Structure formats: structure tokens, C-alpha cells
Amino acid sequence: MSKEPSTSKEKRKNLRKDDGSKILKVLTLYEYLIKLPEAVQDRLYSHPPTCLTVFRVLPDIAQQFTLRILFIEQPVPQSVLSSWVPANYSSELDESIEVATNLHIWKLTGVSGGLKGWILNSTFKKKLKVALMGGGRSTVPNSDMTADPKARDIDFLDSYAYERWECILHYMVGSKHEGISSDAVRVLLNAGLMVRDTDDSPVITSTGFQFLLLDMATQVWYFMLRYMETVESRGLDLAQCLTFLFQIHLGTLGWDYITDEMSENLQAFLQHLREFGLVYQRKRKAGRFYPTRLVIEMGQGNSRTSERMKNKERYIIVETNFRVYAMTDSDLKVALVALFTHMLYRFPNMAAGILTRDSVRTALRSGITAAQIVRFLTVHTHPQMQECGMPQTVIDQIYLWENERNRLTYTDGVLYSNINTPNDYETIKNYAAEIGALVWCDERRRNIVVSTDGHDDVRKFWKKQPKSDPF
């Protein structure tokens, strides 16, 4: 048995102080796609796999309407489309219309009588038909006609993907000295998950700490979104890379796909995916590759992760006395627990720590939220704790420690000072209160703070008022 050094303090001292308030925002596929230029969207819609992927993220009503008008060649009047939905679902209809129009899937056009009607994007319509009916020619053909003499099973692919992805996470927390590719480091820096320290070595940021607490599927999705921001600077085509990524995202786990007809750019993109663990390829000239679970379940959370990988992730025991036990020999997993606990002991296959007010508040100052801590502990709860779950007293206390930091609220405002007379002070205060712009006032010093939104109104009102004589 050995006393565990303060791993969390060693990691936190590298945290950039000017980055502590940044909250990690993971875009959904819809939020990402609408940010793309319309020209890129149109190119994406020229490939059936992309159309099918986009169709899956549409709201239920938008999916139903898309299918209903898929084989209609003329525009459908707005009134007809609205009649398909009961009046009490009007908000859902409005949301569906907004999503579909933002993605440039539906568009308004004229119909007889001067009315407006909805019609599908012609390219999207054509390619979605191909995807739904199984037609067309795949850009990544499956090689089921020629069996791989060195085929890999699903267990091997899961182990490979897990180990490759852990290399990136190990690098972030500095728990191992094993290096990762320059491409992966470039993405981590571009995403703000790491920054260059004074000695030019990458160190983790508060956003990086939040990233580590996400489930693996969400981590991969966020990482790939930030990677896509760098593809054009690498000489790759964004639309082509996205199309390929969506293609293998819809692939079958355990199947191999051939690379003979892939362009040089896609071959280079494939090697990057290989480095990240999203695909397995025995060697570059092997002529085939296997999508791993990381790319197939990318962005889908833990819901579809294999039982073998789930059990591997369930390693935490939390007691009502706030003791936390990590039943693992993984340096990475111990480092993750140390982000918000005070580590006490380290055994060959177990580490023990305790949740304290100071350890949790240190994590909160790093940008990690109480909800993220609770979710992390809940998701990784040991199978023996599945029935009883996380102790409620521990959950409540973590949130209480967070609430201690939220007793003050910050409001932007404009200070009115040096007001000459009590009458002027009362006039300004009463008007600001009347329009709901009064934030704070001090009658003794005659100081008033009004909200930034109400500042112009108060200023214009005060200019029109006769000023009292201070003598």
C-alpha cells in the first residue's frame, strides 16, 4: 500500500487561469450543419449516406412530412401541410419547419392562386430516395465477396478503439509519457482543450477537464467536429471528408471495406481516423479497413455501447461517508477521479479518495459543474452498486457546494453618481424602477445603477427633466 500523491493538484496547477469560466458546448449534428455554407450543404446532399444521416436528425414531424412529400413532384400548399397536424401541435410543426428550412431541405415556392407551398430540395430528394430504397453505388464498397485472410472480430476492434482513444486522454492528463500524433495534438490545441505553456509544451485547460468528464461517444463527436475545422488547412476537402465520415458512421461493426477506389485525399483522411481509433487498418497498403465502435456510435452517448465496454467503464464505488473507490489499475481513470476528489491511497488495482468541499470547489473553479461530476460518478458506477445507485446524500452535498458559489448574481449596469439633490435622486430612481431598469441604489451617497438595456431610456428621461438647484 502506498500513499497517493496529490495528483489532482499537480494537474490543476497547469490549468490556465484565464480559461476557468469557459463552458464546453457540444454542438448537435443539426447545429453543426446549419453553420456550414449553403454550397457545402448542397455538396453533402449529393451523397445518399449524408441525406440519410441528416434525415435521422430531423424532428419526428419533419421526418413524417418529408416522407409524405418525397414522391410528390409539385409543391404542397402551406395550408395542406398544416392540416396534417392537430392544432395543439402547432409549436412542434413550427420547430420542424424551422429545422428543415435551416438545413435547406424544404423551401417555399409559388403555387397556383398566388399562394406559397413547400417543396423538397431536388438533390436531397433524389439522394434520399436512393438511400431509403437501397440503390446507388457506395463510395466505400464492402469487401464481403473477398474474405479478409486476417479478419478482425468485434472484440478486437473494441479493444483497439478503446486503447487508441485512451492514448489521447492519457496525453491530456499527462498520466503517461506515450506520445500521440501531431494531428491529434493540433486538434486538441485548436479545440481549446490544451494550450501551449511557457515552455511550449501542451497543458490541459478547464475546457479540457470538462471534456474528460464526457462519455466516450460524445468525446469522439466533439473531437471530430473540431478536427473538421482544420481539414481545409491540411489540403483536404471538407464536404468530401464529411461525406466519408457519414458513410462509415452508417457502416456495420465487424465488416471490412475496401480502399482501392478512394482518392489520395480520402486515403490521408483515413489515416487520421486510424490514428484516432475510429477505424482499424492493419497497414496502409492492406486495401481494406474496419470501422470501429467509436465512429459507428459517435455522438450517441452510452446507450448503445457494448456490454463488455460498459462493464469496463463501471469502476467507481461511492459510499455515504463521501469515500470514492476506483476499482481499476488504469492511471487515466484514477486521474479522472482525482479531478474532483482528494486522493488518499493507491493500490495495484484500486485507488481511494474522498469528496471534500475543497476538492469539489477546486473542480468547480476549473469550469467543471456539479451536474457533470454527478453524471460522471453515476455513469461509471460499479455493477455492484447498480441497484442502490449513487447515495442521495452525496449528490445533494455536491450540488450544495456548487450553490455556495452562486449566492451572488452578476448584472451588467450603468452607474449614475454625483447626483446633486435628493429630489433629482428620487426622480431618477422612481423612473428607473417604473420601467424595470433599477438594479441597485444607495440613498446616502445618491448612487444608482440601472441596467444596460434601460440606460438609454433613463438618460433621455433625465435630460428632459428640469434640474434642481443644489443650494
Brief rundown of the structure:
It is built from 22 helices and 16 strands. Helix content is 46%, strand content 13%. Mean pLDDT is 84; it is low at 1-21 and 303-307.
Can you describe what's shown?
Helices cover 46% and strands 13% of the residues. It has helices at 7-12, 29-35, 38-44, 48-57, 60-68, 78-83, 90-102, 122-133, 154-173, 182-190, 206-212, 216-228, 238-249, 264-276, 293-296, 307-313, 331-337, 357-365, 370-379, 392-403, 422-434, 452-464, and strands spanning 2-3, 76-77, 106-110, 116-120, 194-196, 202-204, 257-258, 279-280, 288-291, 316-318, 323-326, 342-347, 350-354, 413-416, 438-442, 447-451. The strands form five sheets. The protein has a five-stranded antiparallel sheet with strand order 1-12-13-11-10, with helices on one face. A three-stranded antiparallel sheet has the order 2-4-3. A three-stranded antiparallel sheet has the order 7-9-8. Strand 10 and strand 11 (323-326) form a beta hairpin. The termini are far apart.
